Amino acid sequence: MFPPARSRTHHRGARVLSRWIGPAITFGLFAGFAVFLVLRLQEGFERRAGEWFGSADEVPVEPEEVVSTEVEFTRFDEQGRLVLEGRAEQALGRSDGQQRFLEVEVRLIEVLADGDAVVAADELLLDPQTEAVEFIGNALLSVEGLELSGPHLHFRTAPDRLWSRDPVQFRSDDFVGIAASMQFEVAAGDVSLQGVVAAPATEDGFSVIAERVRFDGDTADTSLFGDVEIASSALTLSSRESVVARRDRERGRMRSIEAGFGTELTFLDPSDPPGDSPAEAPERLGLRGDRLEISLEDGRIPRRVEVQENPSLHRAPGTELRGEEAAFELDADGTPERLSMTGDVRSRLPGGPGARYLISVDSSDLEVDFDPDGEIAGAAFRGRVRARHGRASATAESAFWDGEDTLVFEGNPRVVDSSLLELESGDLRLVIAEPSRVEAEDAVTARFLPARLDWLPGEFEGVVLTGDSAVMETGSGEGVFTGGVRLLFGRNRLVSDKVSVDAEARTLEATGAVVTSLELDIPPPGARVVDQEDRDPHLPGAATGPATVPTAVAADPTSAAGEPSGESPFVFTAQAERFRYEATAGQLSYGGTPQVERVGPSAEVSRLVAGRIEADLTAEGSLGALHGVQGARFERGSNLVRGSRIRYEPGADLLLAWGSPAVVSVEGRTSEGGLLELGLGDDRTEIHPTRVRRALTRAPIARREGPSQR
User: What would you measure as the largest C-alpha separation in the chain, in angstroms?
Assistant: First the structure.
């Protein structure tokens, strides 16, 4: 049976309601607890926030009462000596036992040689138990020309010490600046500042950057420590060790600046734009050294710089001067005027076109003059002078540099070109140019290295050239000697007014009153080779008709006596206005109506005179032949040969003469012909009445490219 419909509905609703009652009660309880918790937390937070912010907004005010006005107070040491006195507008007492003074001024008695130190502030807070003192508000310390001010100053006793950990401003007669902190040792009168940056107090004074600065109460000196930089309109100084500014108490100004190890000084050009750093002006003059002292005029203008150890002067692009001690003289503007350096002085100077070349000079003493722009105007080196440039080196007792390109040596000067020669004279100078050269005056002596002039004719081991003056290019072997020049190489000699030598081109020239004396080897007689075609009169250019029969003109019984055999050297002298030797071509030439003579062992003289005389050398360096052209004449004893051209071969003792006609005269008998061939050694003469074109083949003529073989 089913129940009635209404009854079923009633029971279904009861079941649904009972199902939701439990969760609802649980949720209600949880929500109530959450609200309660939030309210309690909010109440606690508001209470704590009120405590926090209330404590921040409310500064606890200690109860104070005016104890007295126009207060004066003193302090004595154990010996009863007054050490402190002060005054205040008001003295206030506090419940915590501390005392507070308003508008305070405290005087520390005779802490310095010349007086007291004074501290002033808006307030002074004193703890009677610890005697700790704090100056608050516009605190100002004045101590012998030095004023320091800051928001707080602290004072402690035993030992008496006044300090600030806050930044302080300071002012002295020399500097105005700021420091990160300050400390004043009252008993010693010393003030120390940390982290100092200061500007000059007066025009043309010094600015300062230092890690620590100490003002000495006894000496009034200022010591700077750490990475120190000092700058003025005339110079900048940097040092990583202590720098001391010495002060003249009587005049109340600095008298010198002293620096220690590793100090660098840079001289500034007054025309430089303000604010430029040395890195922005690399050509500024710089000085490095240890134990450096700058003497000041009027407390601000540097007038003298002394470096007692390891001075080094440098300037771009290459100037560098080093010594053991140095002194700088400066003009009224602080610009370098003169430098003196002593000890083992080593100098490096730029010179020549565009100052592109460097010259090094060592000496025991150096003086340098500067122009108004700070450029080197000249330098004097004395004592064991030694200079180097390229391959050239020079020694002398003294030397002078003109600041541009010339170094003058005096006192036994000597130049060595490592690839060429040694040169000595009374006055010697090295000119830095393109190319550089050596100029010598007064008794010049040059000793050439044999390897550079081994192309000269003859046998020798050394070459010596002397004269009144000389100009030699360094490294190239090209030079000119003038005034009574004498050239000696082995037993060979050349005398002239002027001699030019070019070792690279392998040439030697002389002009003016030339006299030579040469000793040359000659090829043996068998070295002469004559082709049969040389005797053929039917060669092109020869006259037609029957061949001419050689005719014996004369037989001179003495002509062969003492003549060269090919086993002994051929010694001859020559006089001319001009002389030239070309080693590559293997040829000697004389010009200006030269005359060549040879004296044989029998004292008989052989002489060749012509408008020009040339001598050919063989590949071995021996004398092949002598040529006389332009009205040549050959003489030996009573024999005479004339022609427009004469060829003499000493090795074969053979003479060939060409002319229109050529003339031979033997003991008064004269013959003529277009070509004369005289065998002087075998009393043979051949006369050809017509000019025959000949192609004589003798010992090969030198065309040497390399050194001669001796």
Answer: 197
320, β-bridge pairs:
314, 348
Task: Report how far residue 467's alpha carbon sits from residue 484's, in angstroms, rounded to the nearest whole number.
Answer: 5
Phi-psi region at 637: left, alpha or beta (left = phi > 0; alpha = psi -120 to 50): left
Respond yes or no on whether the N-terminal peptide bond of residue 23 is cis (omega within 30° of 0): no
Peptide bond into 564 cis (omega under 30): no
How far, in Å, are 127, 530, 664, 665 from residue 669 at the CA level? 146, 28, 8, 5
> Has residue 556 got a pLDDT over 60?
no
Per this entry, what is the length of the chain? 710
pLDDT at position 14 is 35
Burial degree of 541 (CB within 10 A; 0-12, 13-18, 19+): exposed
> Sign of dihedral through CA atoms 697, 701, 705, 709?
positive
DSSP designation for 374: S
The count of C-alpha atoms lying within 13 angstroms of the C-alpha of 485, restricted to the half-sphere facing its C-beta, is 27
How many CB atoms are located within 10 Å of the residue 220 CB?
22
Nearest Cα neighbor of 399 from 427, 418, 421 is 427
Provide the residue type at 201 as one letter.
Answer: A
Amino acid letter, residue 465: L
Q: From CA 428, how far away is CA 420, in angstroms rounded?
A: 17
Helix H or strand E segment including 26: helix 5-57
Nearest in space to 647 (alpha carbons), one of 675, 619, 683:
675
What are the beta bridge partners of residue 520? 570
Burial class (CB in 10 A: 0-12, 13-18, 19+), 378: middle
Report how far residue 171's alpha carbon sits from residue 191's, in angstroms, rounded to the nearest whole number: 12
User: Which residues 6+ apart lie within 8 Å of 218 measured at CB?
Assistant: 113, 188, 189
Which of 658, 619, 602 lies closest to 457 in space, CA to CA?
619
Query: Distance between CA atoms of 408 and 396, rounded to whole angstroms?
Result: 10
Q: Are 609 and 556 in contact (CB under 8 A)?
A: no
User: pLDDT per residue over 276-324, tens digit each?
Assistant: 554 445 578 899 999 999 999 888 889 999 999 999 999 888 899 999 9
Residue 422 and residue 392 in contact, taking contact as beta carbons nearer than 8 Å: no
**Integer angstrom CA distances of residue 615 from 583, 601, 621, 664:** 12, 22, 11, 22
With DSSP H G I counted as helix, E B as strand and the rest as coil, what are the percentages for the chain, rounded to 5?
A: 10, 55, 35
* Residue 684 zone, left/alpha/beta (φ > 0; ψ -120 to 50; rest): beta
- Cα distance between residue 497 and residue 516, in whole Å: 12
Q: How far is CA 666 from CA 468, 501, 649, 678, in A?
A: 46, 42, 20, 11
DSSP E strand stretches across 390-477: 392-401, 406-410, 414-417, 421-424, 427-431, 437-448, 463-473
Q: Whole-angstrom Cα distance, residue 692 to residue 237?
A: 92
Do residues 650 and 626 make contact, with C-beta atoms less than 8 angstroms apart? yes
Give the separation between CA 411 and CA 398, rounded to whole angstroms: 6
pTM: 0.71
- Average pLDDT over the chain, rounded to an integer: 80
The bridge status of strand 669-679 relative to strand 115-127 is: unpaired
